[in-house]
Write a structure and sequence with these properties.
Elements (H helix, E strand, L loop, with lengths): L1 H49 L31 H8 L6 H21 L3 H4 L2 H21 L6 H12 L5 H20 L3 H72 L4 H27 L6 H14 L3 E7 L5 H22 L3 E8 L3 E8 L23 H11 L3 E6 L5 E8 L28 H9 L28 H15 L6 E2 L12 E2 L7
Parallel strand pairs: 1-2
Antiparallel strand pairs: 2-3, 3-5, 4-5, 6-7
Helix pairs in contact: 1-9, 2-3, 3-5, 3-6, 5-6, 5-7, 6-7, 6-8, 7-8, 8-9, 8-11, 9-14, 10-11, 11-12
Protein name: Histidine kinase domain-containing protein
InterPro entries: HATPase_C_sf, HATPase_dom, His_kinase_dom, Sensor_HK_TwoCompSys, Sig_transdc_His_kin_sub3_dim/P
Pfam families: HATPase_c, HisKA_3
Amino acid sequence: MTRSLKDWRRAQACRRAAWGSAFREARRQQQHWKTDRERLRAEYRAARTAGRLTGRGTGPAPEDPGPPASGFSLMPWLLMGMGAISNLFHGETPNPWIGGLGLLTFNSLYIYVAIRSFVKETRQAASTRVALALMGLVTCGLALAYGDSWLLFFPLLGLATGAALRGPHLRAVGTGVAVLAGTVSAVHDGWDGLTIAYATWISTMVTAAILSLSEAVRELRAAREELARRAVEEERLRFSRDLHDLLGHTLSVIVVKSEAARRLAPRDMDAALAQVTDIEAVGRQALTEIREAVTGYREGSLAGELDRARSALTAAGVEPSVTRSGPPPDPQSAALLGWVVREAVTNVVRHSGATRCLITVTAAPERIRLTVTDDGHGRDGRQDTDGGDRGAPGCGTGLTGLRERLAAAGGSLTAGSGPHGGFTVTAELPVESPVAPPVAASPGSPAGPAPELPAPTSAKADANRGSGGDAGRDRDGDRSGNGHRNRDGVGDGDGDGDEHRDRDRDSIGGGSAVAATSSAAAGPGGTVPSVAVGPSLGA
C-alpha cells in the first residue's frame, strides 16, 4: 500500500513537471512571437518613414521638378514685339490707331493660345485652332502693312503654332507657316526674308519638341507613382494571403489538438501530454513559416502538405484517403497545389463536420488536377464557388486568394457542393516542365512499370481487418483493441499504442514526411498491422 502510494505520488509529480515544462515552453514561444511582431512593426514603420513604400528615400533627394509648365512660360517672348511698340509710340507707324488695335489683338490671341496649349483638352479644342488661325491673319496683315520690326511677329506665331499643334501634322503646318513668313517678308526685305522664315520654322519645331518632352516627363512621373502605389497594394495583398494561409491552417490544428488534450486529460494524462507536444511542434513550425514568409524564402511542398493533411484529418476524427497518379509535378505547381491542400483541409476540419475526406492528385501530360472532397454539410451555411472561405461571415480570403494565385499561373480553382453532397474543391494547373524520368528499377527487380501505390487507409480500417472486427472504437475514445486510434488522434492502448505515439513524436520533432507505412507482419498474439500517420500539421 505504501509503495503504491509512493508510485502514485511520483507519477503525479512527473505529470505536474511535464505540464509545467510544456506551459513554460508555450509562454516562451508566445513571448518570442510578441517580440517578432513588435520587430516587424518597427521595421514597417521605419520603411514607411524612409519612404521605401512610397518611393521617397532618405538619401540625396532628386532634383525638384517644380511646378508643371504653363502658358506663362511663353509670355516673355512677347518682348520680341517691343520694336513694333516703340515705332508705334514714336509715331513712325502710319495709321497708329489701326496698328495699335492690331497689336492689341495679336497679343490677346497669343496669350489665349499660349495658356490653352498646356492642357490637352483645351489645346485640341476648336476654339484654340480658330484663335490660332485669326492670329496668323492678323500677323500677315500687320507684316504686309508695316514691315520692318512688325515682321518679328512671325516667330511669335511660330511659337504659338508649336505649342498648340503638337502632333503628326506639326511638320506640315510649321513648314507652311515658315513659307508664309518668308513670302510676306520678301515683299519688304527681298532675300532677307529667308531669315524670318528660318526663325519662324525653328521657333515652331523647338517649342513643340520642348513642350512634348516636358509632357512626356510629367506622364512618366505619374506612371512611376502609379506603379509604386500598385506595387505596395500587391505586396500588402500577397502578405495578407500568406498570413491567412499560414496562420489559418495552423491555428485550426492547434484548436483541434487543444480540445483533444482537454478531453483526454481527466482519464489519460500521457495521451493529453502527447497532444500538448504536438501543439508545441505546430507552434514552432508556425513561427518558422512566418519568418520564412517574411523573408520571402518559403516554398510549398505538395508531399509535405499531404502528410500534414493526413495527420490533421485523423486528429479531427476525419478518415483521410489520399490517391496519387502520374508523374510528380514541377516545384512551382507542387507549391501551388500544396497551398490548395492546406486551405481545403483547413475548411474540412473547421466547417464540414465530415467523417471522410478524399484527396486525389492526377497528373496528365498537359495538366495536373487536384480534388479534395468531403462528405460533410455541403454548401449549407458556407460560401459557394464564387465566394471565399467556407464558413466565413462574408466573402473570405482563403479560396479567393488561391483562385487568384492559380489564375496567375494559368490554372483554375472551383469549389462547391458535390453531386452526392459534401463539398468539393478542384484545382487544375498546366504542366510546364517536362515529365520527370521514371525511377530506375533496383537490381534484381523485374522490368516494367512501377506499381501504383495504394491509397493510404485509416488506422481504424487496418485494425478492423487485423482483429476480425472484435476491436472497435468506443464512445469514450478508449482503445479496446491493439491497433485503434480514437477521434482525438491519440492511441490509448498499451504496447502498440505507446510505440505509435513515440513514432509520431519522433516524426514531429525531426520534421520528416512519413508516409502511411505498416508493419511487415502481424505480431504475436494477433497484433494487427499498425499504421504510422504522417507528421503533425505543423511539421
